[in-house]
Write a structure and sequence with these properties.
The protein is mainly α and about 140 residues long. The chain has a single domain, classed as Large-conductance mechanosensitive channel, MscL, domain 1 (Non-ribosomal Peptide Synthetase Peptidyl Carrier Protein, Chain A, Orthogonal Bundle), CATH 1.10.1200.120. Helices cover about 75% and strands about 5% of the residues. Helix 2 crosses helix 3. It is elongated, with a radius of gyration of 32 Å. The relative contact order is 0.05.
């Protein structure tokens, strides 16, 4: 079966252009860093925070986070997921706030030097006055 050059080549070319855009690469890097950050937060919660909470609630240390329960309801894994969410969302909030402040600072135009503006304006007025007097 004969292959048409236009359809297949156009799709691959369009996909390559899409995949090599800066935004897509930045997004991929962000996902990878986010996954790594998520595993760090998971370890923080599972290995440091949840054992402390387990001691507070009197859970069996050998059972880990799954051993934390309120009455007969096991809430350890759910509590760990909530803590993970709170840590990651707070970190993202701080990061977005930092980027917004950086972007605002970058977008703020520099205030013009008023003495230079006033000098140029005075010179222009003098030239205009001289030109009108010559008439």
């Amino acid at each position: 079966m004969a292959r048409r050059n236009g359809a297949g080549g156009g799709f691959l070319r369009d996909f390559r252009e899409f995949a090599l855009r800066g935004n897509v690469i930045d997004l991929a890097v962000g996902v990878i860093i986010g996954a790594a950050f998520g595993s760090i937060v998971q370890s923080l919660v599972d290995d440091i925070i949840m054992p402390i909470i387990g001691l507070i609630f009197g859970a069996d240390p050998a059972a880990g986070i799954a051993g934390i329960s309120i009455g007969a309801v096991p809430v350890g894994n759910f509590l760990a997921a909530i803590i993970n969410f709170l840590i990651i969302s707070f970190s993202l909030y701080l990061l977005i706030k930092w980027f917004a402040a950086f972007k605002r600072r970058e977008e703020e135009p520099e205030a013009p030097d008023l003495t230079a503006v006033n000098t140029r304006l005075a010179n222009a007025v003098e030239r205009l006055t001289e030109a009108l007097e010559r008439r």
